[in-house]
């Protein structure tokens, strides 16, 4: 048993150790006079620190907490299955849902009641409300929370599989660029939290997991605080990881944005420590971890911008602007061009007088600058359009194509931001943003399921094109408005704003004159789609027929795709107006166009995707007019096509959603052809997948609507096959989900007059006699 003096000395040494980076040479000096007894005690303290760092590596200024006698065995619908980590604040368990409804695994964070004061319990409730606002793919989402019967506060969060960022980099022997890219991803997640006025307050490697798909997930917002929130949480709830705490945080100040910047700077410092020294990376670390908060980056966005500049081989703003540093970055970015220029300069020096060189240099500089811009525009156009089209045929290339577009966009943005930028340059940058937005979240083609990113880039494109003169600029503005209207209609159900955008697009198409003739068919098609969402079916039918009278694109592939969309929206408008048999003809036309196009261009993902949707549209219509046996084989064909697309590109969020849509139609056909058990099991799994999709992005109206419609479809299937009690419970759940859409102001006319109406009719038919 160590003596009291040995313990005191060990604690002092341990406190000093926490301020040193791992492997620091000062460690040997620090322990020079320590006895074996003290060394053993320090080793025990370090081991405890390492264990707690796995989840809640937090320290408290309060006295030793009072631990309860027993932890709960379950919270809500979840049974605590296995301990994942523990620390001073509590424990993290893997939870398994076992109420029989569906299978689901989560992480359950139990907070020891003894360390939470009455005031802190109120803060805990407030934090749960704040955390529910976070909606970012880089943040582990909160699912539920509360207080168990035994008085344990708990949070239920997404269960993330992966390694801490430092262990991942060590195991994979990641190069410097990869490490900085991972930190950049982490910065985006933290920036999203700051945008919701939430600080993390405990950023460290253990809270930054890298998933098997190389995505960074930020964990443990259980100690987050409202930025600028009034009041003092008191000593009972002031957790931190001292090794990653800023000086002011360690001194007792409440958490702020500057603390998150400091902590992420330390994470970056540790990750680059064993890589070759790099001036830019070092400068970013130094700025982020400056002892005084005023000398750090002002925002996480500013730190992220410097990381982006480093990744683009541009000088970082944190580095002193020395000529040598800027020259090194330039030559790294343009090493072949620099070599060629040096040879040309030597040749020129050998054959001209020194006085003539100055004049030639000036002329060459002007010419070279103009040529550089022209070349970069040509290269960017090739990369964004021609090369991307070729890469689209390569398996699993969507994420890579988007990353290329993101990196390239940095150059386009720089060109457009130059005060000397010509209108053509700004239009080129806007074109790049449109293409990037397409890949991030354009509904109806392969995308990454990032509608928020897509909307932001379309808004940026609109700002670039605003006020530019000429028909070309007007046409670009129209294209942006149409794309943005399509996005917010489908993802957000923001139909009023979409209407305003379409009106603006119409004005710009008129202003573009002859240049805009080719866009009129697209405009009318999208207008028909919006009118259908607004439940204005006669106007939708008129717009679809007007689109058919407009000129088609010269490219036969694009012409086929647009023609098929015209037929689709015409059939959809006729169907929802109530004439189901009348919708069969336009839907058959759509399927015929795409069957022919699929034979001509078998590798085109957009054609294959739209072909699958055409089988769905015609198949569901045939089911509704009691021709399910005819619908079943075409729905099987569409299902196979979508599954093949997903196998070809697993990141394709549009195909994943289309698969869920196709499955519902397929189960309806199965049920109508005598395969009820198979249909119910498949549709129940579909509902659970949609539920998880919605919980991943709870603020996205499209996902909630998809979930509600799937639940209602499951109730219909159960009711049609005699499972009335189950069906009524399912209908109740669907009604709750539609109620959430109403509460959020996202309940649209088509759901009021169709989906909700059918649900109410089914409940009246099957559930009126319930007790």
Automatic annotation (TrEMBL):
The keyword ATP-binding applies. The chain crosses the membrane at residues 336-357. CDD domains: STKc_PknB_like. Pfam families: Pkinase (PF00069). InterPro entries: Kinase-like_dom_sf, Prot_kinase_dom, Protein_kinase_ATP_BS, Ser/Thr_kinase_AS, TPR-like_helical_dom_sf. GO terms for molecular function: protein serine/threonine kinase activity. SMART domains: S_TKc (SM00220). Keywords: ATP-binding, Kinase, Membrane, Nucleotide-binding, Serine/threonine-protein kinase, Transferase, Transmembrane, Transmembrane helix. ATP binds at residue 109. Residues 78-337 form the Protein kinase domain. It comes from the Bacteria. PANTHER family: MITOGEN-ACTIVATED PROTEIN KINASE KINASE KINASE 20-RELATED, SERINE_THREONINE-PROTEIN KINASE YBDM-RELATED. This is Serine/threonine protein kinase. The lineage of its organism: Bacteria, Pseudomonadati, Pseudomonadota, Alphaproteobacteria, Sphingomonadales.
């Amino acid at each position: 048993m160590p003596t009291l003096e040995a313990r005191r000395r060990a604690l002092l040494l341990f406190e000093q150790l926490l301020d040193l980076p791992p492997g620091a040479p000062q460690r040997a000096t620090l322990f020079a006079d320590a006895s074996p007894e003290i060394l053993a005690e320090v080793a025990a303290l370090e081991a405890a620190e390492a264990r707690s760092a796995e989840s809640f590596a937090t320290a408290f200024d309060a006295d030793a907490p009072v631990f309860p006698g027993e932890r709960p065995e379950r919270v809500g619908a979840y049974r605590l299955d296995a301990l994942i980590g523990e620390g001073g604040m509590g424990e993290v368990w893997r939870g398994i849902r076992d109420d029989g409804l569906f299978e689901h695994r989560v992480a359950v964070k139990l907070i020891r009641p003894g360390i939470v004061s009455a005031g802190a319990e109120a803060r805990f409730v407030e934090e749960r409300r704040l955390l529910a606002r976070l909606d970012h793919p880089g943040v582990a989402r909160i699912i539920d929370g509360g207080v168990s019967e035994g008085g344990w506060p708990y949070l239920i969060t997404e269960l993330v599989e992966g390694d801490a960022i430092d262990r991942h980099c060590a195991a994979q022997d990641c190069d410097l660029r990869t490490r900085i890219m991972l930190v950049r991803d982490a910065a985006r997640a933290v920036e999203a939290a700051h945008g919701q006025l939430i600080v993390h307050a405990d950023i460290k490697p253990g809270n930054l997991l890298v998933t098997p798909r190389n995505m960074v997930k930020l964990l443990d917002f259980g100690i987050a605080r409202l930025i600028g929130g009034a009041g003092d949480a008191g000593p009972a709830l002031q957790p931190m990881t001292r090794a990653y705490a800023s000086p002011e945080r360690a001194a007792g100040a409440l958490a702020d944005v500057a603390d998150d910047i400091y902590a992420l700077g330390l994470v970056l410092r540790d990750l680059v420590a064993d890589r070759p020294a790099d001036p830019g990376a070092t400068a970013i670390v130094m700025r982020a971890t400056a002892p005084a908060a005023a000398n750090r980056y002002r925002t996480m966005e500013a730190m992220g911008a410097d990381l982006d500049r480093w990744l683009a081989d541009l000088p970082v703003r944190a580095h002193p602007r020395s000529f040598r540093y800027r020259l090194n970055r330039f030559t790294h970015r343009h090493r072949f061009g620099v070599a060629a220029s040096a040879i040309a300069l030597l040749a020129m020096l050998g054959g001209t007088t020194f006085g003539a060189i100055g004049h030639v240099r000036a002329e060459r500089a002007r010419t070279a600058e103009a040529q550089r811009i022209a070349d970069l525009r040509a290269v960017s156009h090739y990369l964004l359009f021609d090369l991307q089209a070729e890469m689209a045929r390569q398996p699993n290339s969507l994420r890579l194509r988007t990353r290329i577009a993101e990196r390239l966009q940095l150059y386009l943005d720089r060109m457009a931001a130059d005060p000397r930028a010509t209108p053509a340059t700004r239009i080129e940058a806007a074109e790049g943003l449109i293409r990037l937005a397409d890949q991030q979240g354009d509904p109806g083609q392969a995308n990454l399921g990032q509608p928020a990113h897509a909307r932001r880039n379309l808004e940026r494109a609109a700002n670039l094109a605003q006020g530019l003169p000429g028909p070309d600029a007007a046409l670009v503005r129209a294209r942006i408005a149409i794309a943005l209207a399509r996005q917010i209609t489908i993802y957000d159900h923001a139909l009023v704003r979409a209407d305003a955008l379409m009106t603006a697009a119409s004005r710009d198409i008129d202003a573009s004159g002859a240049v805009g003739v080719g866009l009129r068919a697209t405009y009318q098609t999208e207008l028909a789609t919006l009118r259908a969402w607004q439940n204005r079916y006669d106007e939708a039918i008129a717009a679809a027929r007007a689109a058919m009278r407009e000129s088609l694109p010269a490219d036969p592939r694009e012409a086929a795709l647009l023609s098929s969309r015209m037929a689709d929206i015409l059939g959809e408008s006729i169907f929802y107006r109530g004439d189901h048999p009348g919708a069969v003809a336009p839907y058959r036309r759509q399927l015929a166009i795409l069957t022919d196009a699929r034979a001509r261009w078998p590798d085109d993902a957009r054609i294959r995707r739209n072909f699958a949707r055409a089988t769905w549209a015609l198949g569901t219509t045939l089911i509704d007019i009691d021709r399910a046996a005819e619908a079943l084989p075409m729905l099987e064909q569409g299902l196979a096509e979508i599954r093949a697309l997903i196998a070809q590109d697993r990141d394709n969020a549009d195909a994943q959603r289309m698969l869920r849509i196709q499955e519902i139609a397929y189960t309806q056909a199965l049920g109508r052809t005598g395969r009820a058990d198979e249909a119910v099991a498949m549709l129940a799994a579909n509902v659970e997948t949609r539920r998880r999709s919605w919980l991943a992005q709870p603020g996205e109206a499209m996902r909630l609507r998809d979930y509600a419609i799937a639940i209602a479809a499951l109730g219909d299937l159960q009711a049609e096959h005699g499972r009335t009690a189950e069906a009524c419970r399912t209908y109740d759940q669907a009604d709750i989900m539609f109620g959430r859409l109403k509460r959020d102001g996202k309940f649209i006319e088509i759901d009021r007059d169709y989906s909700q109406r059918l649900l109410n009719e089914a409940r009246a038919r099957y559930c009126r006699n319930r007790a």
